[in-house]
Amino acid sequence: MKQYSFLAFDLGATSGRTILGTLNEGKLQMKELTRFPNQILELGGHFYWNIYSLYEHLKAGMVAAAKEDVEIESIGIDTWGVDFVCVRPDGSFVSLPRAYRDPYTEGVPEQYFRHIPREEVYRLTGIQFMNFNSLFQLYAMRLEGSIDIDGVRSILFMPDAISYLLTGKEVCEYTILSTSQLMNPETCRIEERLLEPLQISVEKFPPIVMPGRIIGNLRDDVAAEIGLSAIPVVAVAGHDTASAVAAVPASGRNFAYLSSGTWSLMGIESEKPIVTDEAYRMNFTNEGGIDGTTRFLKNITGLWLLEQCLKVWKNKSGVTYSYPQIVEMAQSVATNESYVNPDDATFSNPVSMPEAIADYCKSHHMAVPRTHAEYVRCIFESLALKYRFVLTRLQTVASFPIECLHIIGGGSQNDLLNRFTANAIGLPVIAGPSEATALGNVLVQLRALGVVADRDSMRRLAAGAVSLQRYEPCDTELWNEKYVIFRKKCNLL
């Protein structure tokens, strides 16, 4: 049997990875070749992504792949959602892409709703309202006049912008477009009515392609520079969560998933969009998946809270903690009396996350964490309980019984949070794979090549590629009590 090797670039909001996926004798193996930081740049009071630095890191990843002495069949790129690049008529980028954490969209949705009411926007898109959605970013750009949008040739979402740098070809991949709040989930096309307040023509967006489409070959100059041939670049599920969900190692359909990392994204896989009054009230989102499925999900602020606390503690006190130390710290707290709603606006991008958590606890009449251990325990328990809050709402709209929760992504390695989550939701938790996004990226490339036939085959390969950990719920009564307190104190009623 022929050996197949694929290159996956998985770009997250804090770091990126180059992964070599190899299928040999029916066994899929993943090897990390490079890992690099992805940091928000603050310039003139605004926040940007350094796409050129990412491009250089991608080329370094391809150089590393060239040294592996294997034939690379194709390349795939996935990234976070909503952010985009504007392209000049000469093909160059107008500027660095703005980062979704830039405050320039604060208050912008309310201004946009003067043109098209909030309820109508949801009816047309089925997308969760977040002020950084592409729709509102584009409107903010129009309002501030930072970019001459009329003079822009095209608008490329992040994975499409990077594939453009590699191939010179412009596409608009379906799953990444679906995060923008510009797409109608029924027609899978950009809803032109939404563009009217932006004064942007739909022609600014390249043709929409579905996951598994070959975009084009690596440019000759890039291939020569890195020592590879003109390898095809595949439009995988360009949104990282769409790639991750493609790699959920489920054996059936009756599951929910939680892609756990800086963001936590909890949802179900639906054959059709769920755009109902109830979904609107709960502010759930309908995003694109493989095979035309809908990822009906909720974005939850995830391990961002912990990451930012660790950053502050390191900068202020020079203190760093390993993962085992973090777990030991959380377990050392006998009784937790502090909870936060991870999605409260105060945690979006505070100067000091520990101070933001302390202020939140004070304002909600709770004990303020005193030690680093108490902060970690507060974050872990709050996340587990927020997961329950969201899951109970998923259960009211799912057309099937949810029998378990698959936790994928980097957070799936957090043994303590996984146990807390199983206890909080009262359902089995199956953790893994940790590199689900890169794995899903490779699986879509395999399918594009015709090596695997369907979604179930992809998931069987995913299940065989990693070792999974199962957690059964316990301490049900205790966690039920915690949930009542959490909802009351955080005003989640």
Task: Summarize, please.
This protein is an alpha/beta fold and 493 residues long. The protein has 18 helices and 21 strands. β15 (255-260) and β16 form a beta hairpin.
Give an overview of the whole structure.
With 493 residues, the protein is α/β, with parallel strands linked by helices. It contains 18 helices and 21 strands. It has a 7-stranded mixed β-sheet, sandwiched between helices. The model has no long low-confidence stretch (mean pLDDT 96).
Structural key phrases:
493 residues; alpha/beta; seven-stranded mixed β-sheet; six-stranded mixed β-sheet; 21 strands; 22% strand; globular
Oligomer: single chain
| Mean pLDDT reading | 96
Low-confidence stretches: none
Strand content: 15-25%
Number of distinct helices = 18
Biggest β-sheet strands, sense, barrel: 7 strands, mixed
Distance between the termini: 57 Å
Radius of gyration using CA atoms only? 22 Å
Summarize the topology.
Layout: E1 4-11, E2 15-24, E3 27-37, E4 40-43, E5 46-49, H1 51-66, E6 72-78, E7 84-87, H2 108-112, H3 118-125, H4 134-144, E8 154-157, H5 158-167, E9 172-173, H6 174-177, E10 183-184, E11 189-190, H7 192-195, E12 208-209, E13 213-217, H8 220-226, E14 232-235, H9 240-246, E15 255-260, E16 263-270, H10 277-282, E17 285-288, E18 294-301, H11 304-317, H12 323-332, H13 353-363, H14 372-397, E19 404-408, H15 415-425, E20 429-431, H16 436-448, H17 455-465, E21 469-471, H18 476-489
Parallel strand pairs: 1-6, 6-14, 9-12, 15-19, 19-20
Antiparallel strand pairs: 1-2, 2-3, 4-5, 7-8, 10-11, 13-14, 15-16, 16-18, 17-18, 20-21
Helix pairs in contact: 9-16, 12-14, 14-15, 14-18
